[in-house]
TrEMBL record:
Chain's gene name: argS
Source organism: Pseudidiomarina aquimaris
Residue numbers covered by motif 'HIGH' region: 127-137
Protein name according to UniProt: Arginine--tRNA ligase
Coiled coil: none
Listed InterPro entries: aa-tRNA-synth_I_CS, Arg-tRNA-ligase, Arg-tRNA-synth_N, Arg-tRNA-synth_N_sf, ArgRS_core, DALR_anticod-bd, Rossmann-like_a/b/a_fold, tRNAsynth_Ia_anticodon-bd
HAMAP family: Arg_tRNA_synth
Catalysed transformations (reactions): tRNA(Arg) + L-arginine + ATP = L-arginyl-tRNA(Arg) + AMP + diphosphate
Pfam families documented for this protein: Arg_tRNA_synt_N, DALR_1, tRNA-synt_1d
NCBIfam families xrefs: argS (TIGR00456)
UniProt-listed Enzyme Commission number(s): 6.1.1.19
């Protein structure tokens, strides 16, 4: 609907340009918004205000001209001018009813595929395998996963890449500790990677001999020593199994096949450096091999270096990321590379993207974007920690979420069996952690608060999950299937109209999430939809409707609401419940 209206406005602009009312060279970006006061209409635009100055005319006069130049159509019921030149549009009732019916019948709930399908390579999660996943890994995993789901839903080919850290100096320390342990003792120690890492670090700090051995093993590992590689692979397998357990619990669609670790690029790193050298981009600075990009300068106006090889011959994140760009373009055939990494890495990725194109590692038309995110904070305003002040393992966090949710379910005394309570607690607990994160603006820090995220009031997972079960209870009482309702939509009450207007916005919202990589837009929409259904439910009897036609229409509105809620939550990676 929004896209259709934008096309009509574009046609109106072209008509005014042909008449000479607007300069022919203007190519305005047509932007439609939802008016804050919904009584003014369904959409609003400030196009006349934007174009009035270059056109040398009054904004209200130009608004009148734009309305008059709109092609004949069945979409717009009314177009009015407000304030200094805003144009408000009311969509015709017939169009609304047609879109409701189409969404009800459509497996995609009325969401159109992207205009142009792309191969999108999405880099997300990317934990360091030296330790178990902790709360700091939460945002990349679930935000990246939600955007990947949305892109797939819109018809894109999505290739997930889990760029795990499995190569570097800290692995020498871990290998040295593995050497000291044998058989069952080693297996037992590896069962808790956090404990194993701390023990290895303690040995490294306290024993010069151990530290020297660790450094020797790094060199041996990177030189391809068979014994080192065997120990290293054993550690990596254990670590990846820990990661997969967390992904499975979170409902994140990452598998072992999606892992493309730092070590996978190891053989290409010397070639990356050589290719940069052959193009005259490398400069030696204090023994290190660097590229200085004029696009990035410090406060003194000096170009900042991108270090691709240390003075001792070692490689850095920049080298690996450049190799990854080449792989994702050449082998994976990506059209768009998306990186969901902490926003503190913003400068690093800007430099990598710029250098990749300058060096010819990436085509000029290859789209590369870093989507940064804020930090999970505790109530003290610092990065979230466990009660003992340590980093909270994700597995422990999820255990706690399920335990807290189970206590809430048991308090409500819903009559569920113990098995049903456990299932509800699992879904509510995990969903609450995910939704609390996804509902916040990706670029902002947020406070991790158990009481808020597990509340059945406000923009939370429990509220939305309960709203879904409430809608489905209507069909349980009626004894009918939501997808088998006859009759047509009839919108008599203003609450029916408001719910209908929200339901047809689902397409627009999903595309916005994909375009901006901002899942919180979808969360906000689903919360608003649940609220609109609640108002409709209270004011408009469904099963006791005054006649059959009205009952069928209201059942159909309820069915489309349930379908939209379920699909929206699925795009966020959140499982729904039939009862709770």
């Amino acid at each position: 609907m929004k896209e259709q209206l934008e096309q009509l406005l574009a046609a109106a602009v072209a008509e005014l340009q042909a008449q000479g009312t607007l300069p022919a060279e203007l190519s305005p970006r047509i932007q439609l918004d939802r008016p804050r006061d919904k009584s003014h209409g369904d959409f609003a635009t400030n196009l006349a205000l934007m174009l009035a100055k270059p056109a040398g005319t009054n904004p209200r006069a130009l608004a009148e001209a734009l309305i008059a130049a709109l092609p004949e159509n069945s979409l717009v019921a009314e177009a009015t001018i407000a304030g200094p030149g805003f144009i408000n549009f009311v969509i015709s009732q017939d169009q609304l009813l047609q879109q409701l019916e189409a969404a009800y019948q459509d497996a995609h709930v009325g969401v159109a595929n992207a205009e142009q399908s792309q191969r999108i390579v999405i880099d997300y999660s990317s934990p360091n395998l030296a330790k178990e996943m902790h709360v700091g890994h939460l945002r990349s995993a679930i935000i990246g996963d939600a955007v990947a789901r949305v892109c797939e839903f819109l018809g894109h080919t999505v290739i997930r890449q889990n760029h795990v850290g499995d190569w570097g100096t800290q692995f020498g320390m871990l290998l040295a500790h593995m050497e000291e342990l044998e058989g069952s003792e080693l297996a037992m120690e590896l069962s808790n990677l956090e404990t194993f890492y701390k023990a290895a670090k303690k040995r490294f700090d306290e024993s010069p001999e151990f530290a020297n051995r660790a450094r020797e093993l790094v060199v041996a590992l990177q030189s391809g020593d068979a014994k080192c590689l065997q120990l290293w692979q054993q550690f990596i397998d254990v670590s990846l199994s820990h990661c997969q357990e967390v992904y499975d619990r979170l409902g994140v669609k990452l598998t072992r096949d999606d892992v493309m670790a730092e070590s996978a690029y190891n053989d290409d790193l010397p070639q990356v450096v050589e290719d940069l050298r052959s193009q005259g981009l490398l400069v030696e600075d204090q023994g290190a091999q660097c590229v200085f990009l004029d696009e990035f300068k410090n406060k003194e106006g000096e170009a900042l270096p991108v270090i691709v090889q240390k003075s001792g011959g070692g490689y850095l994140y920049a080298t690996t990321d450049l190799a990854a760009v080449r792989y994702r373009q050449n082998q994976l055939k990506g059209d768009h590379l998306m990186y969901f990494v902490d926003q503190r890495q913003g400068l690093h990725f800007q430099q990598i993207f710029t250098l990749a194109k300058k060096a010819g590692f990436a085509r000029e038309d290859l789209q590369m974007d870093h989507y940064g995110f804020g930090t999970v904070m505790g109530k003290d305003g610092r990065p979230y920690k466990s009660r003992d002040g340590g980093v909270t393992k994700l597995a422990d966090l999820l255990d706690q979420a399920e335990a807290r949710a189970l206590a809430l379910v048991q308090e409500k005394n819903t009559g569920l069996s113990a098995e049903e309570q456990a299932q509800v607690a699992k879904v509510v607990g995990i969903s609450s952690v995910k939704y609390a994160d996804l509902s916040k603006n990706r670029t902002s820090d947020y406070i991790f608060d158990w009481d808020t995220m597990l509340s059945f009031e406000g923009n939370t997972a429990p509220y939305l999950l309960y709203a879904y079960t409430r809608v489905m209870s209507v069909f349980n009482k009626a004894g009918v299937q939501p997808d088998a309702i006859s009759g047509t939509f009839v919108l008599q009450d203003e609450r029916e109209q408001a719910l209908a207007n929200l339901l047809v916005r689902f397409n627009e919202v999903v595309h916005t999430v994909a375009n901006k990589a901002m899942p919180h837009f979808l969360c906000g929409y689903l919360f608003e939809l649940a609220g609109a259904f609640s108002s409709f439910y209270e004011a408009c009897p469904i099963l006791q409707a005054e006649d059959e036609a009205l009952q069928q229409s209201r059942l159909k509105l309820a069915a489309l609401t349930a379908k939209t809620l379920r699909q929206g939550l699925e795009l966020l990676g959140i499982e729904t419940l039939d009862k709770m």
